[in-house]
Each structure stands twice: as structure tokens, then as C-alpha cells.
Amino acid sequence: MAFTKLDWTVFVSQTGKEVYDICNLLNAVPKILVTNNPKRLNEKVATFLKAEGCELKTIPFNPLLEHYLQEDILNSNIITLHGYLRILPGQFIASYSPRTIYNGHPGLITYYEELRGKDPQIRAWEGKYPTVGSVIHKVTEGVDEGEVVRFTAVNNTATSLDEMYDLLRETSLDSWKKFFKENIFKLED
Question: Is the four-CA dihedral 113, 116, 121, 123 of positive or negative sign?
């Protein structure tokens, strides 16, 4: 199956598995994947993306502004963050304007502001929230403070922390699929 290559750049610090799953949902791949943690990037994900023509870029774990201000990144039609564990420099966000950078966050901050920041899955599990979910928000200089543009909420059926991770992963994929359908291209349901 041939994948459509979108003018899309993704940033990851983790395995990239969510990006792989989104690609398969959309039948599309990004033109660039940027990681600041290449040792964490899943080999299967990297092999798949390279085979589909996605360029893999590595920037330092603690990147400087200049690492972000690369012409090919700044010229992307869309930039999304998937487990990118860094706050983007304000000058990078401003340089990408008027376009918007989007972040996926596995915490239902539309309901519970205390789930902003790191490890919301653990906090959602420990807090026994009746409703859980994931959001996609515009990136600002603040941690998970940008306007939420899409979210998926479900009843909390998790009986373990692992189930919470799985449940939030499903809601995240649902949010991304709907986001791309509404904002990037039309998908068949």
C-alpha cells in the first residue's frame, strides 16, 4: 500500500509509535520526523518511515533555538508534537506563525486543568477521574496552555495503570484522526 507523503513535520522524544499508528490510520506519512532522543525511536517505526520517504532528523536532547529554525522545518504546512518532551522556544513558535504548531496531550485538560504537564496518565489513574481522554491543542510557550482544538473523552474503564495508558492512547488516536480529517484532508470513515 502506498502512503501519501504530507507536507507535515513531527517531533518526538519517545518511540514514535503514535506517529506510526497515525500514519496507518491516515494512509499518509510526514515528510520529516525530528527526534531529540534517537535511542528511544522504535526501529520498526524508523524503518517504515524511511521506506516511505520520510526524512529522519536528530537534534540534541536539549536543543537550542537554531536547531528548530531549519528552513525545511519552518516551511512545513503543519507541525505536530507526539510525546515531544520539550517546551518549544517562543521564537520558533513565532517564526512558524501565522501557521500553528499542535501538540497531542494524553490528559483531559478541558475537564481537569491539573492534568497539564508531564505524566498525565499516572495522575489520571491515581486521581480516579470518572472521565478521561486526550486533547490536541495549539502550542504556546506555556506548558499545555494553548487553545484546545480537538478532544476525545470517554468513561474511565481502566482497572490498571496499563489499561489507563491504553485507553488514553486510543483517545489520542481518535483525536488525531478527527483533527486531520477536519483540518488537513478528507478521510473516508
Answer: negative
CA-nearest of 188, 172, 97 to 134 is 172
d(CA 156, CA 133): 9
pTM over 0.90: yes
End-to-end CA distance of the chain: 18
Give the DSSP letter string of 13-80: SS--HHHHHHHHHHTEEEEEEEES-TTTS-HHHHHHHHHTTPEEEE--SS--HHHH--HHHHT-SEEE
| Complete domains list, the chain, with CATH | 1-99 (3.40.50.170), 109-134+151-189 (no CATH)
Angle at 165 between CA 62 and CA 25, to 5 degrees: 85
Digitized pLDDT (tens) for each residue of the chain, 189 residues in all: 589 999 999 999 999 999 999 999 999 999 999 999 999 999 999 999 999 999 999 999 999 999 999 999 999 999 999 999 899 999 999 999 999 999 999 999 999 999 999 999 999 999 989 999 999 999 999 999 999 999 999 999 999 999 999 999 999 999 999 999 888 765 444
CB 13 within 8 A of CB 35: yes
Q: Around Cβ 14, how many Cβ atoms within 10 Å?
A: 16
